[in-house]
Design brief:
This protein is α/β, with parallel strands linked by helices and 958 residues long. Among the domains are: 64-187, no CATH class; 291-473 and 520-526, Rossmann fold, CATH 3.40.50.10810; 541-618; 802-957, no CATH class. The chain is 34% helix and 12% strand. Strands 16-17-15-18-19-14-21-20 form an 8-stranded mixed β-sheet, with helices on both faces. The chain has a 7-stranded parallel β-sheet with strand order 9-10-8-11-12-7-13, sandwiched between helices. Strands 4-3-2-1-6-5 form a 6-stranded antiparallel β-sheet. The longest helix has 18 residues, at 500-517. The termini are far apart. Keywords: ATP-binding, Hydrolase, Nucleotide-binding.
Length: 958
Amino acid sequence: MGFMKPFKPPSLVGKNTLNGRPPPSFDEEPPTKKRRYSDGESNDDDAEVVAAAAKVLKKPKSIPKFQPLLQKPVNTVANSQNSSQGSEEKSSSSQESYYTVLWRKFTTKKNKTWDGDGILSVSDGYARLQDVSGRDLGRSAYKSLPSEGDELSVGGREIQIESAISRTDYMAGRPFLSNAAKPAPQLKNVDNVSKVSAKSQQKFKKLHETQKDPKASLPATQASKAEFKTPFKDKSTVLAPNKASKVPVPRHDPKAENALVMKRPSTVPKGKQVVDVVVDPLLTKSLRAHQRQGVAFLYDCVMGMRGSSGEGAILADEMGLGKTLQTIALLWTLMKQNPIDGEPPVVKKALIVCPVTLINNWRKEIRKWLGNERLGVFVADDKHKRLTDFTKGRAYSIMIIGYEKLRMVQEDLQKGAAIDIVIADEGHRLKTATNKSAAAIKSLNTERRVILSGTPIQNDLAEFHTMVDFVNPGLLEKYSVFKRTFETPILKSQQPGASAKDLEIGEARGEELAEITGKFILRRTADILAQYLPQKTEHVLFCRPTAAQASVYRAIIGSPTFNAALGSAAISLELITVLKKACNSPTLLLNKSDKGEETIKPAILESVPAKLLKSMNPGMSGKVQVLDRLLHQIYTTTEEKVVLVSNYTSTLDVLQSLISSMDYTFLRLDGATPAGKRQDLVDRFNRFTQKAGFIFLLSAKAGGVGLNLIGASRLVLFDLDWNPATDTQAMARIHRDGQKRPCYIYRMLTQGALDEKIFQRQVSKTGLADSVVDGKSGASGFTREELRDLFTFDEGEACQTHELLGCACGGSGTPLPPPEDIEASVGEEVASSGENTTEETAKDGEEDEEDVPLRPKLRYQTSATVNMEEQEAEISRKKKALKDSGGKAKMVSLMQYTHIDPSAISRAPTRNPTPAGDDEDGTTAFSPMEVAVEDTALRCVLEEEGSRVRYVFSKASS
């Protein structure tokens, strides 16, 4: 018997082969253990299964340890920028190559495993290793190009090349996103396959066949082979198949005139048919072209038919384009129809989350378009209402709730019927990852989420990621991955002195981000409304400070406490707040300090002369004086009403005192106004005549969004916010659907002071995310030099903003060329200056003096010979003056305005000797001021003696 046999020690004498193969050499390293593709559970047969894979696939050849010079590189991608050059002129960038790899830390273990996937980039003599989240793992000098299967060391880690990836994909960042296409893993060859057991080989063979045909793993029984038969209760009943299936009938006629038919799904459940989803004609007849497009876009997104991996959408139309109506059309369509015939409606319960100021506006809009009988709307603003009426009842299909209230009832909402879709109005409030309202919405486990916001994310990519992750979770990975893959490269490319490669990567990442998010983000500007609404004219008024106001301002920025606090980011923000109050009205400095100001304001006020402090009154402000005259002209010469907006309630208090002293009637809405009374105030103001309600005082933070104040046709923005989106929202309160009169917007700022610096930052595209924005330690985004510039006071007569533009219009108010033509015209202007001979130069002195104020003179060359080098240098200098340090167009948006210097225009002679009368030919003549400023009320203010408006930027929309 076997167990009785004596033990025999193994002998290696004369054993030169092992199963017909040479024995392994002890000088060679043992073969590296290959990557496992299991779910992470340990299995003793894994090694044998992998070995069996090699035998079945007949790949017995082993992989060499490292031979980059013996193998031909696989799918090596050359730099497309150098593809046109000859082989002798190829630069180092043409040797760029990118690969997917496996990596691990160095280890002396016998059975080695890979730690993870990675990306290897070889360029400029270095090999750089990153993990799939974009985190740098190290780099090493490496000049040759590796090949598939190569193993090498980079940054203290062992790696193995899997496959090459294209340069385009790498620049766009696609390998770092999980939803990007990645090469399928390949099984590697294994030595000693002859020692793999037959059982393991059979196990792998079965697994291999299952991957080809999933049904192959099912047991072959008679039941599995039999075809499906419809069961019948009575076995004797025989039902013949109905070959002539019934044609589904849509709810509304898709062939009717002006019908809006939604896109059909590409796949249909077995045995089901597709039926057309048609928007109710009740709403279609009121939808404009851009709104029809918006409804179709939202429908495609929430139904998962836009090619993205989620069912969310962001409707980022500018204010006044009808986001509310588009949303109502979407909800009504989903609540009554389904593209699959015979299925229940897509949405049964919908939740609308919005600021409390807009709750009644939503209820009013739903009632306006759908009436009271078609849809039950539950408004969660009354403590006496039971939430279960919505969550468990069938009478209400839509619930409207404020962001703050939602946090308190989120648990109760989870207990009732499921919420099928969530609409987040003014969704930019969800811009932080720790936002409690966003967490409350996510707790409802609703996949269909729509954000409505008139202010798209422009500069802060962190906020953008938060909004995208809210509507389509996981699409852009975690923020840490997004920051490495997109945010950092894009911001790096926008910095001054960025290298060519940084610029290329930043541009590629930006384009890829736009392509990914463009599938579910729709943005249209208010220019669409030009054909539907009356003209809107915007005036930026640069107001000179009074002598007393200038003295207070100088005393503040010259105080020792002020200079000592310049290095502190937190205190700098307080200094900025103090200066903004000084710009609005010095009397605000005497008001009770807000929390956080007590540390510095009393010390700063000690530097202000006591005589000035005692004599402070609202009239000390240049802006208040201009507002006083402007309101008087509007009230006495027109029948129009005015919306007066400020970012501070303390400033509204000062303005209210001014209005009361002038006996103007007014209404006021700010943070202290109860939510239930806000819509009533808006409705009353829109109905009132000028005598009953002339002015609507509005806090930009409390009611600057969503409100419809079309009863007024003039709006005054008394102070500016760091975030231009806040001002844009506030200015859109009057120019919207339903407006019948031409609209005038007045933006007021104190010339030479902090107001003007804020305005410059708003229009210069320098990245407001790094400056003072709501809720951030804003001053930390400024360098010490930038802070010093902010705190300077320019008391010169010239307009600093206009000088920064390098514009040669002379403040004549004449229209400027389009921004895209400005840079091109610079070269032509300089070139033309060299084509004039001495004779032409002499004619310059004979030019009609009447043209001088309206058209600036050209500087002609005094010699017939042209110095080409000097001319090119002049062109370069002027083009550079139009750009900032980062190479971006500098305040190019201001070139869309006409620039008006009232003092220069008032001194300008007119070509017509009878400016206010009729010419001999019967035509009416106009003065230069009438040509430059069509607004009669503003023109009267500018022509007044001692007017404090030093400069005006004006822009009219057609």
